[in-house]
Amino acid sequence: MKEAVRPSDLAAQPIGEASPVLEGVHQLKLPVPFPLKFVASYLIEGGDGWTIIDPGFDYPQAREVWESEAARMGLDLGRDVTRIIVTHLHPDHIGLARWLEGRSGAPVWMLEGEISNARHVWDPRRSTDDFESYVTRHGMDPETAGATAGTTRLGIRLPERLLPLRPDDRIEFGGSEARVIHTPGHSDFHFVLHDERRRLLFAGDHLLLKITPNIGLWTYTAPRPLERYLGSIQGLRGLGADLVFPGHGPLFHDLDGRIDELVLHHEERLSLMRGAFADGPATAFEVARRVFPDDLSDHQLRFALAETIAHLEHLVGDGRAERIDGDVVRYRGA
């Protein structure tokens, strides 16, 4: 059996602290108030100032860490930050972008399509009714749907200046250059940054070690996110990256090995979910309850359902399952 990809020995500091990883590249482990424990922000020092990738989740503890660790590093948040880059719209990555923008005066960069998505998803006027209808149509009971929808009201305030990036754009930082690579799946316009000269990959949530990114089909995402995710990780094979900087968990070195593991993981999940309706048609919620743990919180349950729908729709697209439309959607083997 092939040995699992091992974590790097680099960036082993505790949550709440920053550590240099390579010359001019630092990781800051910012706390988050949910089971992931931390989100990794990366700080790259350059001649024109500092670039910050994924500033973290907006709550008091994370702001305090930013202030204290920046001061300890000699980084003046009011003068030294040149640009803020956000790999995708999820609140643990974009949440502190507005605060840091206001603190530093630096612009915030995202992939062009993700800017539009973020403005839709985090519009404070947007109702959760469409989400409740969506999950109940996939088999969730109305009481659970209402409780689950309530966990989406996070009140993310977007930055004033969101500047668009496009695939294959190049960003100068740290005396080097990184290429923007569109990597859909975890979100429609997620992207990674490849520093070809230094053989570094800043991966956001696209490639994680020990855990897998949630690939869910939501009301606002394009169809078949799992197909797009698998295609985009396969597209990174042989990229020439000796060190991967993920948004959560440890750094690692074996990019192609981790891609192999992720492809295998999703094939196993597809087989498991297909087996969950072997005895007859089932809703996505019924399948989710059969394949995920029983003790999920309302917050976790919505991710489990969205991920299940994504896998079931992938099975349908591959001809391994059939979708039965009606007031409630069910799936059966093909």
Number of helical segments with 4 or more residues: 10
Q: Which regions contain 5 or more consecutive residues with pLDDT less than 50? A: none
Instruction: Kindly report the CATH topology of the domain at 18-122 and 157-254.
Output: Metallo-beta-lactamase, Chain A
The mean pLDDT is 95
Structural class computed from helices and strand pairing: alpha/beta
Number of strands: 14
CATH class of the domain at 18-122 and 157-254: Alpha Beta
Layout of SSEs?
Blueprint: E1 18-22, E2 25-31, E3 38-46, E4 49-53, H1 60-73, E5 81-85, H2 91-94, H3 97-104, E6 108-111, H4 112-121, H5 129-137, H6 142-150, E7 162-165, E8 170-173, E9 176-182, E10 191-195, E11 200-204, H7 225-234, E12 243-246, H8 255-275, H9 284-291, H10 298-317, E13 321-324, E14 330-333
Parallel strand pairs: 4-5, 5-6, 6-7, 11-12
Antiparallel strand pairs: 1-2, 2-3, 3-4, 8-9, 9-10, 10-11, 13-14
